[in-house]
């Protein structure tokens, strides 16, 4: 009875919501989808930045900061496993939503969520119990000092365990957005970020821990809270019309083929890009001592991590539009409304242009505020070489607001039409370009130091954007002309 009432209420709300999403004002629809994602990523970036802020303001050595940065870069290689499942699930659920096929929508939701749990658990077990030693020693460069080694090992383990929660949360929140349930996604996003920020400060300062492990505990607890809610909501909430009943669940070959076709190229694409960033960090660590600026590799790495952290506020904001683009376009394709797809895409490009311009202006004119804030000292008291290194790296990072984010929005447009191969090949090329340039500009070759690190970012993104734009415009013009696309 409760379940029937829940479904009835859901159907009434869905009819109203579906009419708004498929026929309502497009500007309102775009911001309806995008606002929770923006809030999530901005707060997520702030919660990630709090670790760096605390360490810098408490004068932790650059080597410790760069280790943390590499841990998160490594996590960035794993996160796409969750993102790709979420992306595939959003597209499948969005198509079913557009077709008003609730039974198919229910099955896709359940199977996608269970798959995210299995993948997250398998990867975490491998990273902690099977490959921990080579990862820590050969890739992340863990300290040889015993006390620091133990602390860094604990930090790594907690971040990897947190990855399981993040993977589950990413899929859950993405699927809730695909159902049009933005309220739940928004509230949980805010809760996650606020708990992370508060716990980081409380555990680090109030309990006199003053260790990086306390920051990792804050990350784990904040994400675990959301995971527990997701598990309760999907498995035990009697009022949830889409409650998962395990005994009725079957992973049929057709579903696995559909999700794999969408998820594997996306996962490979983002992971390859993340791997490229990690390789760059390792190259800087091992080869960028003694450049023309006479900065240590740890100093260059720490300033790069800081520049990336600041730029990520607008970078993630822009990518929020590409995330919402997937849901909007998939729903309208399910409804066979190509005209609305084209209109939505044009409006999303316009939004990207506005926010990229705003981010560029803030980064270019605000660097003298950002660096002192993290150093907890006046601009004039920061060494001139570090000032210049940070300014250059932030400038080159800012170009990614146009080039990298532009590529991602074009990638996602193609992805909504199930054109998944270009994303993988182009991110692979971008990583190859980036690694090539970082070696080319290293002290043992051209010796361009910090400028070389920045140019490796700019040139790899530029080349990737040019190729992406050519592939996109070819497909876009053909689509406008023929008006046909692959259906479920």
TrEMBL record:
Transmembrane segments: 25-43, 77-97, 109-131, 155-175, 187-205, 217-238, 259-280, 300-318, 348-370, 400-417, 424-442, 454-477
GO molecular function: antiporter activity; xenobiotic transmembrane transporter activity
InterPro entries associated with the record: MATE_fam (IPR002528), MATE_MepA_subfamily (IPR051327)
Family matches, as Pfam families: MatE
Compartment annotation: Cell membrane
Stretches assigned to coiled coil: none
Topological relation to the membrane, as annotated: Multi-pass membrane protein
Alphabetical UniProt keywords: Cell membrane, Membrane, Transmembrane, Transmembrane helix
Entry's Gene Ontology cellular component terms: plasma membrane
Keyword Mitochondrion: no
Record's protein name: Na+ driven multidrug efflux pump
Species name: Candidatus Phytoplasma solani
